[in-house]
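Form 7-S
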Amino acid sequence: MSSPAMPPAPAPPGGQGLDKPPSIGVDGGFAVAILGIALILMAGDWVRPDINFLTTMAIYTAARMISVPEAAAGFSNTGLLSVMALFTVAAGVARTGGMERIIRWTSGRETHHALLLVRMLTPVMVASAFLNNTPIVSVLIPIVMTWARRNAVSPKPILVCLSYCAILGGTCTLIGTSTNLVIVGFQAKAYPDDPRLTNPGIFDIAPYGISYAAWGF
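Output:
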């Protein structure tokens, strides 16, 4: 007669015998350390962001943690190229003074705080839907500071509203913010056979972005 099957041995008490989680190793620790240093330098504004990230990428490449094709892959992203083109357009608008003229014309000689926000920030939201936010905000900061000094009010609340309105306006179109363009580039790479995801229209996200911007405004 065959002997009965023996029941499985119980697990050792205290969790002994369980597989230990994998260690990140020396390479992982080095990668985390370099990334932490880069974030600290960026948070302290001690090194320009472009130099910071390019140096970090160069260190990872030199340490053979990423390959040269992997390091250069991001520069071929269509979203990144679109962002570079938009920076050129936005810089041209800022240098020619076109945005400043529009804001001065819409704000006029308004002295009331709330009315100034409505008259100034409405064109900011519209412009940021098609241009990069950074030059728009940088052009308007001197205007806000001058108005606040003339009317003896603190510029901080207006500057905060200016920043948020530029961000909200950027969510209304595909080219309104660099994040949208980068995500579209990754989306097209991940779903190459879906035409709805590889070739989105500039206003495809407008129904959601406009409602979101209106709620935030």
